[in-house]
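Table S2 (continued). Query chain:
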Amino acid sequence: MSRTTRRPALRTSAILAAATLTLGLAACSPESGDAETGAEDASAADEPVTIGVVGASSDEWRLFEQKAADEGLEVEIIDFTEYSQPNPALSQEQLDLNQFQHILYLAQYNVEAGEDLVPIAATAVYPLGLYSSEFTSVDDIPEGGEIAVPNDPTNLSRALLVLQDAGLIALRDGGTAFSTEADVLADESRVTVTPVDAQQTALALDSVSASIINNDFLEDAGIDAADALYQDDASSDAARPYINVWAARADNADDPRFAALIELYKDPEVQDALVAGSGGTAVIADQSAEELQGYLAEVQADSQG
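Corresponding output:
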């Protein structure tokens, strides 16, 4: 996922002078069925587009709301404090969209919950980095060193792949997006790994050789993202499961309002704020909905063996 937050929940709404989306009700046929359908569509268009996020107070969302209001598009940003909340809210039609997660997290939710949420646009990839308070390069990390890694399944598997790519460990069968610490081949690895709570990875720096730290926690720990000893390649095929996305329900993914809002999110000012808010770590992604949905299908299939 992109960034976690520990801020209290809040609700914010773009304020509009008037809605500009209309469905031409004056041109409806006199048939009651058509009139009712038109009324329902108009009612939906008059409602704000509700978007679930984690971290609504960031500059990117402030700018996004401002630009939406300037274009006459009403949005309501719903801020969640836990990653576990926005997908059920979207499935239950409490939201129209959410934007907080990468493809792997979405795939795991769909499989576990039996849902069919779909990605409709890409936002960015946030490289996952290896940091140390003692060593200045991967080569300096000694044989038998200890590496702290996040213990949640999504970040754990990605952390292990980063360590393997850095030449510090070897994983059974080359590793996958679902590898665990049980897949680390001890006799072929230079270091050991210790899973800890993601928030503890930065705090553990003084007691381990190095830590894999999600960029969510770098600023609070006073760590500069540029000091990473190693990080994964955001442009590689291996990074596809970690592309952050806009997600919608499959049955209304083609709502034209969504496409208009996504274009506003691509505004250079908003994109600059996104990158700045990540400490400069975010790599903007622009894959199409079709590509993203293909990646999602692959990851969901892999997760089921």
